[in-house]
Amino acid sequence: MKSFSERRGLKPTQEVIQVNEMSDELRASLWNTLHVVVWDSADFMHGSHHSRAKMDQFSSLLWFHYFKRPVDERPGFGYSNRSRLILEEIRKHFFTASWNEVYDFIEFVVHIRKKETPELVKYLNHILTRELSAYRFVEDKLVDITNEQELEMLEQAMADTRFAAVTAHLRRALELLADRKQPDYRNSIKESISAVEAMAKVASGNDKATLGEALKLLEKHGKLHPALKDGFLKLYGYTNDEHGIRHAMLEAPDLDQADAKYFLLSCTSFVNYLKSALAG
């Protein structure tokens, strides 16, 4: 029998935020970016009357420093379509390599092409963001933006069956964030905050309380430090007035994936904290 998550069409968090894997869509999109920005750039595949194709020098560096194979074994020597034959060899590697080797490859390309195509990093980061990769380029190096501890925290929170409403809000927040075609960052943030509100009501023992009231009750009973309560309320701009800070924040026109992801992670962390307060 299919699980609730399977019936809802929700993938495990490790698949939604791509850490130790790479979807076919992400791999193809990274290749397409290289194709548009590098392979199709001026004089790359075909030289001019005054110079050789840039593919010649590029592939020489690639074979020497990345593949670490004899440079004179590059395909197509003596053929007029040599650049195309070399590209076919590169493409074969790209689409059969492991996920980490693909990242090794694009990092190498960015490094040796950073002067000729400085815009490459911007376009690659756009794809990495769109496809929810856990990595981004900072200058010419790929760095983690989501760690294993954060993912484990999400997995544990969403597997918790004790608080159905809380879990449902977190699942919905992730679902809205992870929609590749029509992500809804604003409502993802709302669902993340709603998870905290639902958990605060449970932890305070008052299911009619607002978030502020619930947190004050927890503070009164020694289950929440005053500074932590104040910090949380200020951070999320909580107010009952629909025209207040929180309302204005959620109506901001430029909410993006980073905002929604931050709220999901921080709200999940606070939900887990409130669960521990309940246990205490």
Q: Helical content, roughly?
A: 55-70%
Mean pLDDT: 83
Number of helices: 14
The total tally of domains equals 2
H/E element string?
HHHHHHHEEHHHHHHH
Structural class: mainly alpha
**Describe the biggest sheet?**
2 strands, antiparallel
Radius of gyration using CA atoms only:
25 Å
Give the CA-CA distance, first to last residue. Answer: 36 Å
Shape: elongated
Strand order of the largest sheet: 1-2
Q: Beta-strand level of the residues, as a percent range?
A: under 5%
Q: Which ranges are low-confidence, i.e. pLDDT below 50, for 5 or more consecutive residues?
A: 238-245
Total number of strands? 2
Structure notes:
Helix content is 63%, strand content 3%. Strand 1 (135-138) and strand 2 form a beta hairpin. It has a two-stranded antiparallel ribbon. Mean pLDDT is 83; it is low at 238-245. It has helices spanning 4-8, 13-16, 24-39, 54-67, 82-96, 99-113, 120-130, 148-159, 164-178, 185-204, 211-220, 226-235, 245-250, 257-279, and strands spanning 135-138, 141-144. It folds into two domains: 18-144, no CATH class; 149-279. With 280 residues, it is mostly helical. Helix 3 runs parallel beside helix 6 (99-113) and helix 10 runs parallel beside helix 14.
